[in-house]
Target: DUF2075 family protein
Amino acid sequence: MIIYNEPSSRFLEHIYENKIGYVLKENVKSLMNKSISASELRSWENSLPQMAKILRDASLKDNTHILLEYKLPSTEKRIDFLLAGHDKMGQKNAVIVELKQWQKAKVARGDGIVRTFLGQRERETVHPSYQALSYKRYLQSFNEALYQDSSAINLTSCAYLHNYIPARDQEPLLDSRYKNYLQEAPIYFQFNDRELAQKLKQDVSEGDGFEIAKSIEEGKIRPSKKLVETVNSLFQGNEEFILLDEQKVAYEKVITLFNEEISNSTDKHTIIIKGGPGTGKSVIGLNLMNHLLSKEITIEYITPNQAFREILRKKLIGSSGFVEIRDLFKGSASYVEAPNNYFDVLVCDEAHRLKNQGHMKRRIEGENQATQIIRASKLSVFFVDDNQVISNKDIGNFDLIKEEAEKQNSVVHVVELDSQFRCSGSGNYIDWLGHLLNESETPIALEGDFDFRVVDTPQELIQKVISEQNGRVMAGYAWDWNKKLVDDKLPNDVIVEEMDFAMPWNDPNRIDWAIHPDCAYQIGCIHTVQGLEMEYAGVIIGNDLGFDPETQTQTLVVRREHFKDKGARPAKPKKGQVDMLDVLVRNTYKTLMTRGMKGCYVYCCDGELGEFIREKMNCS
Model:
């Protein structure tokens, strides 16, 4: 969606008459039915007049076209400024200009990351050149008008920081670590205005940009052939993505349904695939994406968990180098404004983590994220496990999704997965763990090849899982999380005083904590690891879960005072009501203890709980 598409002469009129903010505000209201913030209005009124000066100095023809606030489909990202026109050789050109009001910046850790003052405090964000380049690559990979040879529109990008005076020595934004991004998307500072004007004059001086702008605005959004071929090549011969038994059945169910019921029909369908941890839900979903992409089907892959989404992206990007693959994966808040049936297929993994709100700044009455996904697609596919709900904000259970689909007259189909592809294929371990945490009256002996142990100290856990098995250690949310660095280091928040043990929570700036080598000696939290798997998993069970041998029934106990995830904690129940925190804590530890493919080692802060689990391991 583009909220402003006008010839440059009209744009300059709006600037000189001080109307540009009002015009954009009214366009947003009419096209998107939303209001804009005062800060966004100020941003337009501060930056766009600076671009007017550039256009005047470039002496562009009046019919060069200006596109403002181009919202990239199914994202919250918008391109600030885009010019369309011809050069003196008759070439069709479009130029992305990312506008920034920054005055200072610092080098930061991470590829393409800088620090600057945003929202009244210093924050990490992407380098302006990286941002401009990523928008260019997104359009070239997903907008047909920009990747089809017949259109032959040449797209370039740059950034303009009109308030920024660079340091004379060692300007952070020009640091060598950003060299590749600067080469492809140059950055222009306050006194580089003439150079930017010269670039625009070279690219679009001859104007006649109406048809170019129209092609970009109306271009169908679907992955380019190059992107599809790259994804397909990653699946061919890769054992990690081979479908086995009921995985294949579920996969074929979706493909057959699409071919026979959806491709030539206006009916809406929803498939809910139920499966516990390790039943191969993600493998099915990724294979669906790969197959349907190759059939020119408009599809996106949704994961509410950002960490899980980033790992999926890196698994594919890592071996191909094709970073645009990341744009096939979206968060669950991406479909607030998506039109009805805009997508052929939306696949939602980890659907139990869906939330009520579509976006933290907006809420459409009567809608939740499941509603929006179903509304936006002809076929919606949800992978769900009700027993992995770990927050009072998680609403995506089977019953809710089914109810939301039926409200929209979507035909509901249900598929169940049982076979275990994690935990050494041990259905016995999954059953035993379920009985342990849910305290079933029927005892089950722990059998099979899965390597499960209770260790005596957290140090032993670290040694066996990380040092010996190159695994990862996680913990329940039984410690506060101070995300501020102390002396440029992560604070040791996970503390077991009686064992003289302390380690930090996982780095919040490393979404790929589970696979990044620098993050091995950090403790992963439930929000970082859900959906992921590793060969060996270590779990510290905090004092939020314990065992009370003094009670007559000798039961597990959930201790509210030790549960520190304030955002996930439900209110205290009224007398006689079930405490939902009891369910969430048990689900959390079941989820953590099923991340391992070969083994799981556990340390219990409550020693009585450790002894209880050891007894249950040998129970028959």
